Amino acid sequence: MSYNWSNRTILIAEDDEMNYRYLELIFERFTHINVIWAINGRMAIDYCQIYQYIDIVIMDMQLPVVDGLEAVRQIKSIKPELPIIAHTASTYNDAIEQCLDAGCDDYISKPVSIEDLLNRIENLLNPVATS
Fold it and tell me: How would you write the pLDDT of the chain (131 residues) with one tens digit per residue?
């Protein structure tokens, strides 16, 4: 399981440093994607406005300053095409529905399955054309 995303950039919006470091390690080891870290929802929104080269966002839903749902709404209003994956410990159907309603393109629960996460990102970065 290996992907070459060295020409891509991911924004990880995560306030817990251990969770961020875990994701960073996964991406470093299996993908070589460039990583930007936002420690709260406001930073995530600002980074998406400033850095035009962000290709995908992993968004924790329980963020300080601006929560994940509101951050997703604001990012999608600026960049509707930017793929966002919700990353949260809540697996209740209503929580998943809230994430998708806010504009998330996909959802993954904590603790994350490395293979599942990388497959979901691959599907969003390089969608298979349907004819």
Answer: 689 999 999 999 999 999 999 999 999 999 999 999 999 999 999 999 999 999 999 999 999 999 999 999 999 999 999 999 999 887 677 888 999 999 999 999 888 899 999 999 999 999 876 65
In the three-class reduction of DSSP (H, G, I as helix; E, B as strand; rest coil), residue 94 is classed as helix
Per the structure, how many domains does the chain have?
A: 1
The CATH number linked to 23 is 3.40.50.2300
Residue 36 placed within a domain: yes
Give which of 70, 39, 75 is closest to 57, Cα–Cα: 75
